[in-house]
């Protein structure tokens, strides 16, 4: 399996995975704890211009979308998905309008809003791109409860459940082994 830092992954895949991974669930460290921090994160990735800024509403929507996306990608490993997570994404997407753009590279979706909503629109356009290019279902969240890192499943049969077999996979298997009744 590969994570968002793996070479060769499409830019849109990396963007979505990195956005979800702005919260390190295991260490409880949020890389974007404030509107200003999220604005800087988006600016570094070219999602907003210097004249754009995250309002408190757009910031809350971005954090809600991040956690709903985490739930959706966790469902790609077979975990149940709450309908409320999909409704959250639909609510945030409806405030992040997109337009169709035409260029020499073809047709694309582009954000049609300003400020933080522009960045969220770019994120949703990236999600549509990952679906179109058949990457969406390979984007997952580690099923190891304490980890929950977003990763790209490179397994041949798309059965990957952990961000790292060497760490989270082994940890999970060891926990199962220790919890099983002793053999006689």
Automatic annotation (TrEMBL):
Q: Where is the Zinc finger CGNR domain?
A: 138-179
Superkingdom of the source species: Bacteria
Q: What is this protein called?
A: Conserved protein containing a Zn-ribbon-like motif, possibly RNA-binding
């Amino acid at each position: 399996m590969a994570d968002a830092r793996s070479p060769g992954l499409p830019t849109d895949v990396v963007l979505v995975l990195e956005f979800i991974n702005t919260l390190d669930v295991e260490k409880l460290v949020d890389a974007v704890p404030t509107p200003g921090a999220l604005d800087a994160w988006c600016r570094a990735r070219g999602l907003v211009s210097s004249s754009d800024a995250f309002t408190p509403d757009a910031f809350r929507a971005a954090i809600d979308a991040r956690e709903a996306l985490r739930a959706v990608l966790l469902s790609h490993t077979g975990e149940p998905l709450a309908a409320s997570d999909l409704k959250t994404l639909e609510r945030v997407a409806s405030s992040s309008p997109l337009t169709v753009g035409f260029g020499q590279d073809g047709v694309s979706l582009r954000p049609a809003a300003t400020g933080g909503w522009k960045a969220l629109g770019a994120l949703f356009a990236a999600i549509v791109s990952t679906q179109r290019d058949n990457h969406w279902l390979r984007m997952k969240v580690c099923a190891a409860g304490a980890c929950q890192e977003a990763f790209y499943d490179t397994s041949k049969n798309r059965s990957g459940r952990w961000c790292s077999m060497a760490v989270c996979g082994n940890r999970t298997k060891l926990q199962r082994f220790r919890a099983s009744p002793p053999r006689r």
